[in-house]
Design goal:
The protein has 314 residues and is α/β, with parallel strands linked by helices. 48% of the residues lie in helices and 11% in strands.
């Protein structure tokens, strides 16, 4: 079955720059968006958790999405994040995204409620019926408390709009399940330190917060694995990225690291909304060093001639 929307490439869940008073800094947001498009990412997500959606009102999220869609102006797809505690808020975000011209929706499990698989599926199908846009599901049981299991996938899979799933469980067996039993739902990497494994099992897209400040390097891994099929090169790039993955996934300061990474690369992202606090000086220095080494190493790998294209002297 041909999907109604193909997810192929690097999809960046965009940070939300803030002013000192915590209002969205739309000028900085425009700069972030323009840089991401210029460096070749394949799609953008507005209103994801990397964008601090949990600390924003629905009205603010709609304002940020509207600015994002207007600035992007169709150059790459924009996916509207709909995750919210209240189902009514998720519906408002979904309907708002459609009205603004979003290309697809990101639909997660309602947090804290711990619905059954049937209840979770019916919630997603309610959004689908009302909005009728392509949907990327977001499976993150570590935050939501429940898995989008086989009963859930069987139920939502009856609608062609459910054409992808961002898999963030960290369970490699889920990768096997999705690749083998649900090939009609495109698998997207949502666990950064498993990107190589996702690509090996056929994933063609990666939703990665780190691409906010290292888009070229994330595209390089995707290109090596998905476009070139060169997993030897892919392993070398992934090895160079692993120190960053450890900082992002294991340090407990994911959003702070992403936003400071963007600032370190030249675009001021401003404040972190409470309850989170910005990185301290030691954390910043450590991240800066990881970024420098990563960029240098991957640039060297990318500069090497392709296999079979080495110059023959003499």
């Amino acid at each position: 079955m041909t999907p109604i929307m193909e997810f192929n490439g690097i999809y960046t869940p965009v940070v939300t720059p803030f002013n000192a008073d915590y209002s969205p800094d739309f000028g900085a947001l425009d700069a972030v968006l323009e840089r991401l498009i210029a460096t070749g990412v394949h799609g953008l997500i507005s209103g994801g958790s990397t964008g601090e959606n949990y600390a924003m009102t629905v009205a603010e999220r709609l304002d940020v999405a509207e600015r994002t869609i207007r600035t992007v102006a169709g150059r790459v797809p924009v996916i509207m994040g709909t995750g919210a505690m209240l189902p009514a808020d998720s519906m408002t975000l979904a309907m708002g995204g459609k009205g603004m011209g979003a290309n697809a929706l990101l639909v997660a499990t309602p947090p804290y409620a711990v619905p059954t698989e049937r209840e979770n599926a019916l919630a997603a199908l309610t959004i689908d019926k009302a909005v009728d846009l392509p949907i990327m599901l977001y499976n993150y049981p570590g935050r939501m408390g429940v898995n989008m299991g086989e009963e859930f996938l069987d139920r939502v899979g009856r609608s062609r709009n459910f054409c992808a799933i961002k898999e963030s469980s960290g369970d490699i067996n889920r990768v096997h399940l999705l690749a083998r039993d649900y090939p009609h739902i495109q698998m997207s990497c949502g666990m950064d330190d498993q990107a190589l494994e996702f690509f090996a099992w056929g994933a063609k897209s990666w939703v990665c917060g780190g691409s906010n400040f290292l888009p070229d390097e994330h595209v390089a891994l995707w290109r090596a694995c998905v476009v070139e099929g060169n997993f030897d090169k892919g392993r070398r790039i992934m090895s160079a990225m692993m120190p960053l993955m450890r900082v992002l996934e294991q340090g407990g300061k994911f959003v702070q690291c992403i936003k400071y990474g963007v600032t370190f690369q030249g675009i001021e992202t401003g404040a972190i909304r409470p309850p989170l606090k910005a990185l301290n000086k030691d954390d910043k220095r450590a991240l800066e060093q990881v970024i420098r080494v990563l960029k240098t190493t991957i640039a060297q790998i990318e500069a090497e001639p392709a296999a079979g294209q080495e110059r023959v002297e003499g």
